[in-house]
């Protein structure tokens, strides 16, 4: 069972690495529900999760999640202690903390640019995460951490990419910057403004001229025949004149 689970995780990680550029160390955002489930099932997150994902991982949380755990009192005191060991990432709710689920959703806006994994047991949050493309989801079943399969939204996004119908915004910007750096954008603009040059002479006009030359070429031949007939006639008259004189 463990080998099968590992192969399952490796295949999914390959999907995110190839299509969404996930790289080590993997950034894992954990909420209070995941920490509580790990504590209840005696799971060592720091020791077990990197081996399951197949690479180094950085574990992090937010101030909103810590505030939420603190407000829940003794029931989640153990989960709070676990979350406090992780790196605290800055969120946009410094003055007005929000719920842990709302905070995590705000951290993966605009296409998840930081390539976060979301680790949660909150089913409502998980459903909202699945509506976004390119966000791996982690949860715990009994005493086992599980990497959820890619969502239909992620699969559809990748299919569009493969059909060259969609380019991520960060890739579009990179292409524009690269073109400007290499001077390709200016060259493309000049090519569009460049007018089509006039071609060679019209083949039909050439044929017409050639036909005219042929007609002109026939005229000297006619004149030559006319002169020849005239010379024959003059010669015949001269012969007749000589014969007449001899007879006299």
TrEMBL record:
InterPro entries: Fcf1/UTP23 (IPR006984), PIN-like_dom_sf (IPR029060), UTP23_sensor (IPR057776). Residues 183-248 are annotated as: Disordered. It is found in: Nucleus, Nucleolus. Keywords: Nucleus, Ribosome biogenesis, rRNA processing. Residues 224-233 have a biased composition (Basic residues). CDD domains: PIN_Fcf1-Utp23-H (cd09866). GO terms for cellular component: small-subunit processome. Belongs to the UTP23/FCF1 family. UTP23 subfamily. This is rRNA-processing protein UTP23 homolog.
């Amino acid at each position: 069972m463990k080998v099968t689970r590992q192969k399952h995780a490796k295949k999914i990680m390959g999907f995110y690495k190839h299509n969404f550029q996930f790289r080590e160390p993997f950034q894992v955002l954990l909420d209070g529900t995941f920490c509580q489930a790990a504590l209840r099932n005696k799971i060592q997150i720091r020791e077990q999760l990197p081996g399951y994902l197949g690479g180094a991982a950085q574990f992090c949380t937010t101030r909103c999640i810590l505030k939420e755990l603190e407000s829940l009192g003794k029931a989640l005191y153990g989960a709070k202690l676990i979350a406090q060991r992780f790196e605290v990432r800055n969120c946009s709710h410094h003055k007005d903390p929000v719920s842990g689920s709302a905070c995590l959703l705000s951290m993966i806006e605009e296409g998840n640019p930081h390539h976060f994994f979301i680790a949660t047991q909150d089913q409502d949050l998980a459903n909202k995460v699945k509506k976004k493309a390119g966000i791996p989801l982690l949860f715990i079943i009994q005493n086992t951490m599980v990497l959820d399969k890619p969502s239909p939204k992620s699969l559809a996004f990748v299919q569009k990419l493969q059909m060259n119908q969609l380019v991520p915004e960060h890739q579009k910007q990179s292409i524009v910057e690269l073109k400007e750096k290499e001077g390709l954008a200016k060259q493309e603009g000049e090519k569009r403004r460049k007018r089509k040059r006039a071609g060679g002479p019209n083949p039909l006009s050439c044929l017409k001229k050639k036909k005219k030359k042929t007609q002109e070429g026939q005229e000297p031949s006619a004149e030559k025949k006319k002169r020849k007939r005239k010379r024959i006639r003059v010669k015949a008259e001269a012969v007749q004149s000589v014969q007449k004189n001899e007879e006299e």
